Amino acid sequence: MRPERVLRAVLVVTTLWGAQLRLSAQTADATLPQGNVHHVKDRKESKEARQLREMREALRDQQQEINDLKQQIHAKSGEATSAQQTAASAQQTAADAQAQAAAAASAAQQAKQAAEGSSAKVSAVSGSVTQLQTTQANLNQTVILTDQQLRRETESPTAVHYKGVNITPGGFAAFEGVWRQHSTNSGINTPFNGVPFPSANQGHVSEMNFSGRQSRLSMLVTGDAGSYMLTGYYEMDWLGTGTSSNNNQSNSYVLRQRQIWGQGALPNGFTVTGGQMWSLVTEDRKGTDARTEIQPETIDPQYLVGYSWTRQPELRVQQRWGNYDTGAFSVAAAAAQAQITNFTAAGDIPTQFFFGGAGNSGGLYNAAQSIGAGNTPGSSAITTYANNLAPDFIVKAAYDQPWIHVEFGGIARFMRNEFFPATPGTTVNAYTYGTTLESNTAPAGGAFGAVRVYPTRNWEIGIQGMGGTGVGRYGSSQLADATIKPNEELEPIRNYHGMFSLVGHPTRKLEVFTYYGGEYDQRTVYPVTFGTTTELIGYGPQTLNDTGCYNLPSSIPTAGGGGSPAAPNCASPTRYIQEAMGGFIYRVFDSASKGRLQYWVTYSYIQRNLWSGIGSSTTPTGPRATEPMIHVSMRYYIP
Asked: How many CB atoms are closer than 10 A to CB 26?
């Protein structure tokens, strides 16, 4: 039943009951006299009056409850109306949502159908997205590494970037000194074939000289031309001597060209190099590559007895197969500037021949180098510029593994001279010469090789050697290349030289080393008969006078001057020179960005043996001279 109907029924009953009660009260009051009103009030309440009063009180309470109930019903009625309105709104919202859900379901169905029809495209796009994410991550890492590299190159560049090339400077500043027990009147550069004998004044005095002339500057230029790499290299020091150079006060020595060459290299290992460089006969550390040559760890700019080398103009081609880290094979061929050095002939030799001449200053050759008295009988040497027929041709092959380097090669030389044919007369040193100038070419050359092994990371062992005819020029001692025959043709002298090396790096700062080298020129003599007398001529005749090699000097040639290392009556040429050398290098500071400071000390002992002659025939090894010496150095290498 609805609340409104219940309320109206209750109101009707209550009204009727209230009306009855009022009527009953009026009737009772009407039956009582008016004068006895107070008396009635004071009289004890009757049972009916009490009931009537209780009924009135109950009626008032019920009326209050009815009023409260009406208020609650009114409030409930408002809430119901609001709820009805909310319900209606919710029903409309539900209807709208249902319509939207139906539309969404339809769209989802269409999307599903579309997705099912393009699943391959979705998969491909997903893969592309994954690939792009990976590429982006790699790109980010590359950017970070590139930024770090750019910072390093900006703060500590290893090269100067100029236009399209990189320029890398190099070199060092050096203070160096040498002490020799027997003077050679030389700077830090040692003339090994000029060690004096006791009969020379210099054989009795020592010398000590300081020098900064070996300080060096270099510049490496590289350019990437795409299909090939271009390289240029320039290296210089101050070991040159001008016409007025001396060490009296300003030590004004001149700049010297050590190396200057250019190179083009293809990616397949083919390389062409041209300019002044270390000769191909010089031992390389990697294949036949320029700028990998190995020099002995010596301060002496003439290096060490037995070391094979020249620095001269050369055109070189090279081909390499493989990689140096895993194994490589290289071959190279070169055409090099030729020269006949230290021609030596003794005895009653003919004199109508030549193979060169003094330098012409107009042709930018040093005119101070001249033949002098070399063509006169008894002469020991001729210094001249040779009139070369052809360059020296050199070939070399090399094999490399990380633990070993092996190389071997050969050299071909062509020595030419011009002469008037000579015929011995009936008296000693009397020749008859023809009137027609003739020419002769004497082929020379030999073989060379080197092996260097690395048994551990800190040690290396090397051995190198060269042998042939007319190859004395390629040894540090500069022994004679050739002598003369009785008919005035040139005769190349057989020569052998070699060197052993042991180098160690016991610590990062310390390097220790020891070397032994030797060079040999074979005795090359010919008999010449003058009437009934037979003489010997050539290189090292047994008839040369060696009686004065050990005599003490008896005079000083000029007042205030000095004597020559070449002593009288000690005429035989060198048979064998040997040198033992040891030392160490201590690197005080070594940084790729700040340079290197090092101290260097070496001790050498040289022994020079001559061929035996008159007065020394009982000594098979011939007269002997020795030269102990000490070199010291302090160098700062620029980074």
From this structure: 9
Would you state the pLDDT for residue 548? 86
Distance of alpha carbon 626 from the chain centroid = 40
Which amino acid is residue 468, in one-letter code? G
Question: Pick from 491, 472, 484: which is nearest to 346 by CA?
Answer: 484
Count the Cβ atoms, other than its own, within 10 Å of residue 412: 15
Residue 164: is it exposed, middle or buried by C-beta count within 10 angstroms (0-12/13-18/19+)? exposed
The CA angle 325-330-335, to the nearest 5 degrees, is 140
Find all residues with CB under 8 Å of 299, minimum gap 6, and list them: 176, 178, 188, 214, 600, 602, 631, 632, 633
At a CB cut-off of 8 Å and minimum separation 6, what does 229 contact? 222, 223, 264, 265
Contact yes or no for 409/280 (Cβ under 8 A): yes
Mean pLDDT for 428-432 is 91
Give the angle subtended at the CA of 216 by the CAs of 233 and 223, to the nearest 5°: 20
Q: What share of the chain is helix, strand, coil (3-state, %, to 5)?
A: 25, 40, 35
Helices (H) and strands (E) in the chain, counts: 4, 27
Domain ranges of the chain: 3-116, 128-157, 158-637
CA dist., res. 449 & res. 279, Å (int): 13
Q: For helices 47-117 and 119-155, give the axis angle rounded to 10 degrees.
A: 80
The highest-level CATH class for domain 158-637 is mainly beta
Q: Residue 141 pLDDT > 90, yes or no?
A: no
The answer to whether the CB of 309 falls within 8 A of the CB of 286 is: no
At 552, the pLDDT band (50, 70, 90 cuts) reads confident
pTM of the full structure: 0.74
Helix axis angle, 47-117 to 3-30, nearest 10°: 170
Pair 338, 385: CB distance under 8 Å: no
User: What gap in Å lies between CA 272 and CA 395, rounded to an integer?
Assistant: 14
Helix (H) or strand (E) holding 587: strand 574-591
- Cβ-Cβ contacts under 8 Å for 188 (sequence gap 6 or more): 176, 177, 178, 209, 211, 213, 214, 299, 300, 301, 631
Nearest to 631 by CA among 179, 191, 173: 179
